[in-house]
Amino acid sequence: MKLGVLVSGRGTNLRNLVDRDFEVVAVATNRGGCPAAGFARERGLPLGVFSQKAYASAAERDAAMAGWLREAGVELVVAAGWDRVLSDGFVAAFPDRVVNIHPSLLPAFAGGMDAVEQALGQGVKITGCTVHLVTSAVDAGPILVQAAVPVLDGDTPESLHERIRHEEHRILPEAIHLIERRVEAGAALR
Ligand code: GRF
């Protein structure tokens, strides 16, 4: 499937997909200076920069981004470290074809950008990551794949997040393969 990957940060999930030979036909970012965008440039991947400053609203930015992804022939949108809520219009433009990766075992620690800090703050012994379909309800769409990750004594947000990322790099490809199989079989994704 032709993937469009949405990024705002480090881009380790993007790099992992590219390294595993997924067909990434477009990378969109709201932060042209982030490391993920730098990686896209380095690899010559088509990069669209959709800075919020250039648009009157998030809905307008997302509409422009959806149009650009469509033009690029994107069949599945992968939010891999995208740090904004996608507007309803964007989700509607790709019905059941937008997935997100979130660094917790949803529905725990949904919403917000600090799921890893929240897990540490709550003292949970196990957290993890989730790939889910994006719907208009934030972090609440149907779950596709999850992985558990132990919280260890002395963990910092950084050390725990690294352990979670390690599992993300396994389950995001797994979720995409799952979607490809279901789409191929003409089955619903939920
Ligand atoms: C991941 O932990 C993902 O779950 C969250 O943002 C982080 C992105 O990491 N949504 P990276 O930019 O792919 O390294």
Derived from helix and strand composition plus strand pairing, the structural class reads alpha/beta
Q: Which word captures the global form?
A: globular
Rg, nearest Å = 16 Å
Helix percentage range: 25-40%
CATH architect. name of the largest domain: 3-Layer(aba) Sandwich
Average pLDDT for all residues: 97
CATH topology of the largest domain: Rossmann fold
| Domain module tally | 2
CATH superfamily of the largest domain: Formyl transferase, N-terminal domain
Q: Count every beta strand, where a strand is a DSSP E run of 2 or more residues.
A: 7
Low-pLDDT residue spans? none
Task: Name the beta content range.
Answer: 15-25%
Q: Describe it for me?
A:
This protein has 190 residues and is of the alpha/beta class. The protein folds into 2 domains: 1-95, 3-Layer(aba) Sandwich (Rossmann fold); 101-130 and 145-190, Rossmann fold. The protein contains 6 helices and 7 strands; from the N terminus they run βαβαβαβαβαββα. The protein has helices at residues 12-19, 35-43, 58-71, 88-93, 115-122, 157-184, and strands spanning 3-7, 24-29, 47-49, 76-79, 98-102, 126-133, 143-150. Helix 1 packs across helix 6. The longest helix is centred in the C-terminal third of the chain and has 28 residues, at 157-184. 5-O-phosphono-beta-D-ribofuranosylamine binds at residues 9-13, 36, 80-81, 101-103, 129, 165, 168.
